[in-house]
């Protein structure tokens, strides 16, 4: 069976540092931080009160006029995916139905039946204000100071009718892909991978395979998630994964691989890439950022809440990706690590990388973004891969904010302090789910025409 | 050379039974798993019945491993049990020299149910009735006290796949998809492609879900997608019948062991059937409606047959998505007519959702298992509660009684809310 080659021709990002991959990348190079005190709700009774929030960006500016009404049924996660998708197709110069209907293109230039989507998503949190508002109508004693009691009977008779009929659709994880495929008219295989922080990588890996085997010519792939809501923050807080002593200095809170790291910071963001079959990209004269050459996946879990100390699963995934690419560990010239900032996960990740790359692992420059962005969940991996792609094409690696002294337990060459020049041929990107442990590695190679 | 993918193990936990043969016998007998809801008090809900898994005890299935997995959600428990049955039926437990880095997991697993009592308690305590808004500070105070980390973490949809990897120590690719009602069909299709490509030698694949909880029923009731035939719930799931009024929520899990043919042969294990074809498309139409012409559904069926190297004449049975909603059944019938042309009047089409209810993310896997059993036993399961023909649904729905007939190849459809469509083709194994 003929294997098609797959290249990256578009990058779309909506992150706490800006809209568009370039805006985010340049902010990283300028050492800016997207983490601040939470503005979306009053966080003062949470142990961690900071987050990487996407403050700009209106989803209505990223859809056709006739679709603006549908944005009412989009949770923030869905909005971020739709915004990132718009930036991705614009960046790729692919004229989709959305751009035509927005008057930004003359005619669509993509065969919808060969245009796929694979968009990772998290467990979308219900809008607590909306849901609690409806639930509040079913309290037994709404006037009481406490112990108000929730009545399931009352919920059935009158409470639930306070929810909008389409309520459920705001929170189905597949709605990220559904809205994006409707807006841009993608009718080829469409999937929704829901594996926590590994979702983007698994989705991009699967999209790579889809084009490789000829089931699509072009795919929009990546992921998006928002953890910046009371329930999302509460979940991470209950799991003791968050920094709690830096509420007054959010820009210094998250310290990937640093010896003084104390936890993660929640974030939100979307990253979507355009993957394209090489000959198609060449035929339309597309700008080719890089070629996707390897993918591997495994599971890196001691149990479903904790990673393996030796990073065995991650090492397996990296090994499979290298084999897939026909590359040696020493060929890796640059990589991005997930570096979420918790003591345990960073140590496991570093061990896995070292086990896979061997004695030269310490030489590979490592790009880590969480100090600036926070943990954008299912969106993180694709944002990271977009940053790696730009770092390779521009020959400069932004530093990891707040990483000053690398923990001896995480002996990696984390780029810190100032941006570093780097001209790598082969780049590695990894991500792992904090809960569940799904893990994946992607390899991209500089493309030479 | 193309690597062929066969099924070497299967297991399910369904509203009609916790083992393959018991539930299959009931399905062939036209029994319904539907009854008044017992999981919560649905007495004031528009829909007061469901197709529940009864008398389930995870301990019976995983024995001493239970201690390690006891915090799992209801649906992940179903998944572990079904995977255990599938794994054991494949003979993997006794297999020597199994390379577990080459065995993966690909599920269509749903999200775990919310911690309803504690969540609603925190919500009403946190509500500021005076200003009619959420007091996030007060909510946080209450939530810190009553929510528990394990219950919250187990809601993540990737947890069932993680638990399964842990139970069997398998280190291959580990995926979860959640394309609503199409999820487990998509999972099996993608897992098949992984084995074909050589990324794994075997995959534990299928799905699990339970949305029979107050928020699940609320969501579907608000969408008016559920049947409200409270006075006769046992007959409420009536796919393709003119009097259908929505689907009936079910729950459960279905799991397959997919294996590369030579790998299966080398260990001399029983081969149930072959996964021959997979087609996946998006409607790209509306989030609330299926494309009027069944565009995406037709494309998925065609792609799956093309992938299998088969034509419409080779298909002896179509396991329909057949939810029992006005729209789905009409458009699915239209799509089958569009693809099968004149043959559409001859090919039997049935929906086991008439008996099992709609298992959402787990539906496709359980329905595919009924196809494998149809191939084995040369019998097609019926669509029960079929009494009044609908002019928009004019195919042979195998009404009310199972049918003995020749079955070589089956096609199974699953269409997700929002427009993700997946079709699988399975065939009796022939060397």
How many separate domains of chain B? Answer: 2
Distance between the termini of chain B: 15 Å
CATH superfamily of the largest domain in chain B: Thiolase/Chalcone synthase
First-to-last CA distance of chain A: 24 Å
Q: Please outline the major beta sheet of chain A.
A: 14 strands, mixed
Order of helices and strands of chain A: EEHEEHHEHHHEHEHEHEHEHEHHEEEEE
Rounded to an integer, what's the Rg of chain A over CA atoms?
21 Å
Beta-strand percentage range of chain A = 15-25%
Strand order of the largest sheet of chain B: 7-4-8-9-1-10-16-15-11-12
The computed structural class of chain A is alpha/beta
| Overall shape of chain A | globular
Number of domains of chain A: 3
Proportion of strand residues of chain B: 15-25%
Secondary-structure-based class of chain B equals: alpha/beta
Number of helices of chain A: 13
Oligomer: heterodimer
Low-confidence stretches of chain B: none
Describe this protein's structure.
The complex is a heterodimer of chains A (449) and B (431). By secondary structure, chain A is of the alpha/beta class. Chain A has three domains: 6-127 and 167-283, Peroxisomal Thiolase, Chain A, domain 1 (3-Layer(aba) Sandwich), CATH 3.40.47.10; 128-162, no CATH class; 294-445, Thiolase/Chalcone synthase (Peroxisomal Thiolase, Chain A, domain 1, 3-Layer(aba) Sandwich). In chain A, 30% of the residues lie in helices and 19% in strands. Chain A has 13 helices and 16 strands. Chain A has helices at residues 21-29, 76-92, 97-101, 128-136, 152-159, 175-184, 199-212, 230-238, 278-283, 312-325, 343-357, 370-373, 380-394, and strands spanning 6-15, 18-19, 35-37, 50-52, 115-121, 190-191, 218-226, 266-277, 290-299, 332-336, 365-367, 396-397, 413-414, 420-421, 426-432, 438-445. In chain A, the strands form two sheets. In chain A, strands 1, 2, 3, 4, 5, 6, 7, 8, 9, 10, 11, 13, 15 and 16 form a 14-stranded mixed β-sheet that branches. A two-stranded antiparallel sheet of chain A has the order 12-14. In chain A, helix 1 (21-29) packs across helix 13 (380-394), helix 7 crosses helix 13 and helix 10 (312-325) runs parallel beside helix 11. Chain B has 431 residues and is α/β, with parallel strands linked by helices. Chain B has two domains: 5-114 and 155-427, Peroxisomal Thiolase, Chain A, domain 1 (3-Layer(aba) Sandwich); 116-151, no CATH class. Helices cover 35% and strands 19% of the residues of chain B. Chain B contains 15 helices and 16 strands. Chain B has a ten-stranded mixed β-sheet with strand order 7-4-8-9-1-10-16-15-11-12, sandwiched between helices. Chain B has a two-stranded antiparallel sheet with strand order 2-3. In chain B, strands 5-6 form a two-stranded antiparallel sheet. In chain B, helix 13 links the parallel strand 11 and strand 12. Chain B is globular. The interface between A and B is large, with 99 and 93 residues.
